Amino acid sequence: MQITDVRVRRIDKEGKMKAVVSITLDNEFVIHDIKVIEGEKGLFIAMPSRMAADGEYRDIAHPINSQTRELISETVIGKYEAMLLEGAADVNV
């Protein structure tokens, strides 16, 4: 699997959520609404989720293993940080 496209939409409001990202896998499958969040230990990603009937949030799409999660996380956070360095409002790579 390769991440073939990353689109970052920066969030300018105050708060912990810094960006919303869409990624394309192998030029064939898109995952929207990955969130870049500022936590106590730095930036991390949250996969797209929705609230279930019990009030808990459940991921709609997520990696099956830790290597894939790390690949997605490093790629998304790297593109977000590159956008900040460039001073751009949004970045498509």
From TrEMBL:
Q: Into which family does the record put it?
A: Belongs to the SpoVG family.
Organism expressing this protein natively: Lachnoanaerobaculum saburreum
Record carries keyword Chloroplast: no
| Species classification | Bacteria, Bacillati, Bacillota, Clostridia, Lachnospirales
- Which BP terms does GO give this entry? division septum assembly; sporulation resulting in formation of a cellular spore
Q: Provide the protein name.
A: Putative septation protein SpoVG
Q: Which domain of life is it from?
A: Bacteria
Job of this protein: Could be involved in septation.
Keywords associated with the record? Cell cycle, Cell division, Septation
